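Minutes, methods subgroup
Present: GH (chair), OT, SY

1. OT presented the first of two proteins processed in the latest run. Sequence and structure tokens recorded below as shown on screen.
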Amino acid sequence: MSRGPDAATLLRRALERHADAAGCDVSVCVQDSTRWASATFAGARHTVALTLHDDPTGGLWLKALAEADLPIRGHLVADVVILSATRHDEELVVTLEALTVEV
């Protein structure tokens, strides 16, 4: 019996949907997740590298991402932080960290 996609997959899909809705062409390049727990919560920390392809709206999308609502089934995206953003020719390569909490 399949349990469905994990939080990392759901987060990637939510980021892609959110970018698409903003008119941004985004590709998730690398994703790594580590289980995380506190005394009261369980979830995962995700490091995501993505590429924004020659897109004038990409910078605006990135600025709004920390406050964005990224709904994913069974989890809450509690925090999104941009760790780095580097321009390579016509692309912007971004590394971000997100924290998801199981609900």
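2. SY then presented the second protein from the same run.
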Amino acid sequence: MGRVDCDVLVVGGGIVGLSTAHALSRLAPGTRVVVLEKEAGPARHQTGRNSGVIHSGIYYRPGSLKARFAVRGAAEMVKFCAEHGIAHEVTGKLIVATERAELPRLHALVQRGRENGIPVRELGPAQIAEYEPEVRGLAAIRVGTTGIVDYGRVAAQLAEASGAEIVYGGAVDLVSRRPSAVAVRTTAGLVVRARVLVNCAGLQCDRIARLAGDDPGMRIIPFRGEYYDLARPDLVRGLVYPVPDPAFPFLGVHLTRGIGGVHVGPNAVPALAREGYDRGAVRPRDVASELAWPGSWRLAARHWRYGAGEIHRSLSKQAFTRAVRRLLPAVTEADLVPAAAGVRAQAVLRDGTLVDDFLIRDAPRTVHVLNAPSPAATASLPIGREIARRALTTLRAS
């Protein structure tokens, strides 16, 4: 197919990779950037298959990359969408406690929100009804800075505005790193020679790291998030979330009034394929990778009860409906219409720890983005600048 030379090569055409290319063009005009995406277009995986929420940053540990980048990124995302005519809305959301045991965790979220500089309002049952007449709870908090957007459209706009050469339709199958450059080959026969490689491959990021000769110290364990559409969207005015379990980076089954209709979900079910959007999808290579990683077994041993509950809700629509009814008692099984699923690329360490923050690591002539699940779409503009700065530091030193 040929050969291309460039300054920075970005592997992965999701929103993080495209934001990185966009940031490079702003921070260092004239930098030659190539983006390789194995699919036929951008945002075909995590970016284009999420619930479209602009997260406020309330959940994340103060000082963490997630907290800093989500708070900053939410404001920047709203501004970016306004500047480029991308449909979006700052709706606000409710986080609702339905059991007394959840009240201390709800109060802790209030404190965390304030530490992260996010305005929150505490609500009692009557005030919940003012915002969401069909939602029931003992208490709630309202987070005004949460919004909604189509991240696929954002990614397409970033691609257009980046000035990068974007090559679709070939997966990276070889990386050769030399002291002076990095050469990458794709399954389509293209060879790209770059001074710096940026790995934004999402669900495949650990494999790209190993192709480059680096030990990432983690594995991607895929979790399928299954969604329903609400057949009676008038039951929900905005966004309604349960109080999350702080032991997990998942937010629980929630209700999201998006750009078109109301989405319900997702759950978090271990997937048998990294791109296993269908329940029956099984890829032996991916299963073998999961089983060979000690962290998978340690994760399962530590959190099997939580996992069993998620699998039960996946297999039983009745159980899924019960989870929704905790927040929205009026919903019935008939109200839930199956919708397209997503897969979360979750990094797991050797000891079974779920990586809770964004994970970005530098290597010779390389920047690896090894954990960037939600809220990475919200935080994509500041994440892209951070990655671009690291890449430019390496570029200028070479």
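Chair's summary of item 2: DSSP finds ten helices and 22 strands in the chain.
Next meeting: continue with the remaining queue.
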